[in-house]
Amino acid sequence: MFEISDIILGALSKSPANGYQVRRRINSDFAHFQSVSTGSLYPALSKLKARGAITETGSANGSLDSRTFAITDLGRTMLRQKVQEAGAGERLRSDFLAAVYFSESAGPEETVRLIEERAGALNQEIRALLALPLQSMTNTERFTVRYALAVRRAGLEFLRHEGRAIATAIDIESRNNR
Amino acid sequence: MFEISDIILGALSKSPANGYQVRRRINSDFAHFQSVSTGSLYPALSKLKARGAITETGSANGSLDSRTFAITDLGRTMLRQKVQEAGAGERLRSDFLAAVYFSESAGPEETVRLIEERAGALNQEIRALLALPLQSMTNTERFTVRYALAVRRAGLEFLRHEGRAIATAIDIESRNNR
DNA sequence: CCACACATGTAAACTGTTACATGATTAC
DNA sequence: GTAATCATGTAACAGTTTACATGTGTGG
């Protein structure tokens, strides 16, 4: 299982960075499969340093309080091993599907609202993925982005095609039950 | 945010059940958006009971040690409210994409292995979704299953079409670098 | 000068999983 | 009789989020 510390290692495998930069890298470049908050970032950085997977080189950002981290050979070995041990699992937790699943009792407006909200979010995610520097990525990196795009586009298309239909269906059903 | 206890409430909104049955309902009928382990199930059931969202009727399973739970009116109100408050978020944590993203250093075999493993898992998930009793579902329930199917099929198709291509690309690249 | 981005960190709370522990029933 | 399924539960741990706390640099 990829933990936050492994993802951080991955972020630092590209180039050295300070904590803030690591966080931004993960929350933009890796946004299609991970995210981090400060609360897990800094403890994980300390842990990685203690293990020898990364080193801390002196602050490199002028007077701003900044620690710069770089991956070590040991860190690279650890990352490679993680990849070799990794399964191909994906864990999805969808508030959207849960809410829709139970939305019948709350009326068709709720279902429609949820579908529209999800469509909007998918749109934004697609834009963000398209804004990534696809040209300068490695083959495998680009592959993950294109996979994420394909999946999101399919979801969006489904919502656009079927969203209206279900609203009508619920509406008719509730009218018939009166 | 839908927590486990809300999902349990949703499961019990269909019909009364004991803990074991609730768990199976979630891990089969709701598998496309949630899962539960025993460690969270039983404490959550107790919490719901204490709050008055569910009641415990005497054991209804012969001599087997079994507690049967049923949703109350309060429970139904709570569930409806959850739906109304719910956002349309989806949180994905993909070991698959993480591993592929960082797999370049580990060689093309790893990338291919991951893609094949993911394809197999998607296939299984699709089968499981198709095995659900679509005919006897409500409109919104069926909608979630079809959405999940659309997304998984798109993922599988992408992997089938592009999986080979990327293996070749990495291979060529690594040969060129020699 | 004010707001926003940069930068680091901690503490409490929460949520959930894994593993363990136990035992009855059912199907082969 | 033995393996699988049914059934309940706890303890330890893992992982994370939220909120707090603090301060600098930059652009308008």
- CATH secondary-structure class of the largest domain in chain A: Mainly Alpha
Here the CATH topology of the largest domain in chain A equals Arc Repressor Mutant, subunit A
Kindly report the oligomeric state of this protein.
homodimer
Runs of chain A with pLDDT <50, length 5+? none
Envelope shape of chain A? elongated
Measured on Cα atoms, how large is the radius of gyration of chain A? 21 Å
Number of helices of chain A: 7
Taken together, the total number of domains of chain A comes to 2
Average residue-wise pLDDT of chain A: 92
Largest interface: A-B, 67 and 66 residues
H-E string of chain A: HEHHEEHEHHH
Report the structural category of chain A: mainly alpha
N-to-C CA distance of chain A: 52 Å
> Count the strands of chain A?
4
Largest sheet of chain A: 3 strands, antiparallel
CATH-level-4 superfamily name of the largest domain in chain A: Winged helix-like DNA-binding domain superfamily/Winged helix DNA-binding domain
Task: Note the beta-strand portion of chain A.
Answer: 5-15%
Trace the largest sheet of chain A across and list its strands.
1-3-2
Under the CATH scheme, which architecture of the largest domain in chain A would be assigned?
Orthogonal Bundle
